[in-house]
Amino acid sequence: MTQKSRSSIPGYHGRYLRINLSEETAEFVPLSADLLRSCLGGSGLGVHLLTLEGSATVDPFLPAAAIAFVFSPLVGSPLTTSAKFAVVSKSPLTDRINDSLASSHFAIAGKGCGCDAIVLVGQAAVPTILVIDDGHVCLEPAGSTWGMEIPRAEIELHQRFDDNFRWAVIGPAGEQLVRYATISHDRRHAGRGGSGAILGSKNVKAMGVRGRQQTAWANPDALIALSKELSRKSFGPATAKYRELGTASNLLTFNRFHALPTRNFQQGSFAGAAALSPEQLGTTYSKTQASCACCTIGCEHIYGLKSPNATAPEQPAGVRLEYENLFALGPLCGIDDPAAVLGASQRCDALGLDTISTGGTIAFAMECVERGLLAEPWLQFGDGDALTQAIELIGKRDGIGNQLAQGSRRLAHNIGNNTIDFAPQVKGLELPGYEPRALQTMALGFAVGTRGADHNRSGAYEVDFSGQVDRRNVGLEAVPLAIETEDKAIIMDSAILCKFLRGVFTDFFAETAEILNLVTGWKLDATELHNIAQRIVTAKKNFNIEAGWTPKEDTLPDRLLSEKLPDDARAALTSEKLQELVREYNLQRGWSADGWTVEPAAEKNK
Amino acid sequence: MSVCRGEYILDDLDGIDRQLTAPMPVTIEFYGIARERVGRDHIDVEGHSLGEVMSELGTQFPEFARDCLSTDDNESGVKTLNQFFIASLGKDRFISDPQTPLVDGDFLLILSADAGG
After folding, report:
1. What is the CATH number of the domain that holds A195?
2. Range of the domain at A489
3. Do B33 and A245 touch (CB under 8 A)?
């Protein structure tokens, strides 16, 4: 039976649950209406909570480091795609702020425990399953689940606990503190930045939530009507690409524009792309589709795969394919074998590994081998077996896997020989599948992103594909456009709504304000949402500054600034051009030209 | 010497006009949903402008017309892509003005306006 929240703030419970695993204590901490209005929820509230905990100056693997699971005012509403939440922490890969978004019933059940967020600090004494049952917190021994791959662990948890619990689970990669380990929620991963490793460092194998406390809505009739209209639009042409083909349809498009990073960003197009395209895969593999919880778009495209282990029936027979895991485990590693790419994706999901960072780190290692700088001759571009073997070694941190588990930046520092020049990362986060030299507004988005190189925190590629700029020679006119996409992403990650919904909005900020107002009773408008976005990005920047950020981090790998794309001579970017864009970005954000939000004393005294 | 008259009258002036203003063959490549609607990855179409080419595509492929072209009328009467699709002239620039002239040998790429994921 559902219960009504005692909160007087529609859409919110007005508190978060703080659990100290070391002391085995839990408390509800109030959140004021003013604070919630200033940051909404999700990513925005998450960075506030992390700042409150002082996490910027703490090693992410220490018990004092916090990790926050943050919901939003829209969770539990009838709005399509609203069953989402943010996992916010200091990343063990980048040592900078990290927010991962995921979609699952975990959001609804977690908020149903009577809180707007769950913050974990401390470290459990032994491998543990954390259970939150409608506000009651319990630590259970992880037992045999510790060491299990994610699919098996999820089955075990469902057998051991009531079916109404929803789970956040780490795999062996998280237990082994692989710096880009994920947290799985119904097989959808809070993927980037290593959140899974943080749970692993806290000895938490899984977190289960069960609760039915509902928050009120300020204008339920209008909200329901708007929800129906939004759902109707979500079936239309704005989302057809995701529904019918999935993001994997980007592959051939990017390949044609030489924007498909290939062989560790050595080229922008891949001869084997056609074999990996969804158009081709659909003719040779069975395919089913699925949706996230409470989503009407249905963007999950699951390709059939024979179980690699006949004695492990829990190993899913299919793997969800997105553009990013397709590019990272395919062209980026020079692999054109669909079976190898699908198999590698499946192993990443089972072990709990971010596919982008896995592919990027392995591709970097492959180039180091190619150049004679890494003595692992079996690790060659184009070798699917080598890719699979590398993934297994990373999951166990065995042999070279122990170094690969650190990510490409740390691996480059270990190898030396100026390999950092071609390590495909920004701030330590491996680049997603957008070649910056061919998409130069995106290049800016990558360089200044507070999480590192990230296509979800900056949608600047939309500008490159719009005709508003010359994508291979952008000028300062690209900067406000890039900021607009960044602000939109911030609001979508804090409100929270799925980015695949963005095409249904005619005026995103005004319409999102209307949605929030119907839930909360506030009178937000587009201007205030822009201000909130600015406040949140500044909060993230401040977190990073406190964590040790310096202006030299806002750049791209030297390869991308000194080498033209061999397959597109017009696609060239220089450090001077990029820094000109970065300076303009900083100024338009209201910061100093170098990116300081407040001029540091050392700078003032120069 | 006398000057001749009328010895060089051309009978097929209409034919010469067609030859001078014949539509240009343009290769169009389709990506993503546009490819799904047309059922092929490329086609050669004749037209002087982006609008003419889109109109011809709409005539040949009703599903493309339904899902990829705008239903709004414009002054010239030619069709344009709707807001969910974009056209690239070669790989160099994105175009949307239906009056954009096309010449022999041009190729257009039709792709989703929502290019990322």
Report:
1. 3.60.9.10
2. 440-604
3. yes
* A459·B84 Cβ contact <8 A: no
Chain B residues in contact with A464 (beta carbon < 8 A): 115
| CA atoms lying within 13 Å on the CB side of residue B115 | 29
Tokens linked to B46: 């004749």
d(CA A116, CA A10): 12
More confident residue, A143 or A605: A143
- The pLDDT confidence band at residue B3, using thresholds 50, 70 and 90, is low
Residue B76 predicted with pLDDT over 70: no
Q: Quick check: is A344 in a domain?
A: yes
Answer whether CATH 3.10.20.30 is correct for domain B24-112.
Answer: yes
ipTM: 0.90
Range name among A309-323, A393-407, B101-115 with the lowest pLDDT average: A309-323
Q: A249 and B31 in contact by Cβ < 8 A?
A: yes
Phi, psi at A437, each rounded to 5°: -70, -25
Alpha-carbon gap, residue A474 to A571, rounded angstroms: 11
pLDDT tens per residue, range A190-231 = 889 999 999 999 999 999 999 999 999 999 999 999 999 999
The residue from A395, A430, A465 where one domain ends is A430
CA distances from A550 to A61, A98, A221, A256, A450 (A): 22, 17, 49, 36, 12
Distances (CA, A) of A599 to A534, A545, A593, B52, B113: 18, 11, 10, 56, 40
Q: How many CB atoms lie within 10 A of CB A521?
A: 14
**Residue B31 Cα, gap to closest chain A Cα (Å):** 6
Q: Are residues A457 and A331 in the same domain?
A: no
The residues, ordered by sequence, that sit 6+ positions from A545 with a Cβ below 8 Å of its Cβ are: A596, A597
Distance from CA of B84 to the nearest CA of A (A): 6
Residue with tokens 């239903």: B71
Q: Is residue A333 domain-shared with residue A355, that is, in the same domain?
A: yes
Please check the confidence at residue A6 and state whether its pLDDT lies above 90: no
d(CA A15, CA A115): 5
The domain segmentation of chain B, as residue ranges, is 24-112
pTM of the predicted protein model:
0.94
Domain count, chain A: 3
Nearest chain A alpha carbon to B41: A279
Give the Cα-Cα-Cα angle A210, A215, A216 (nearest 5 degrees): 155
Q: Tell me: pLDDT of A23 over 90.
A: yes
A222 in a structural domain: no
> pLDDT tens for residues A301-356?
889 865 444 444 445 568 889 999 999 999 999 999 999 999 999 999 999 999 99
Which CATH number belongs to the domain containing residue A262 in this structure?
A: 1.10.569.10
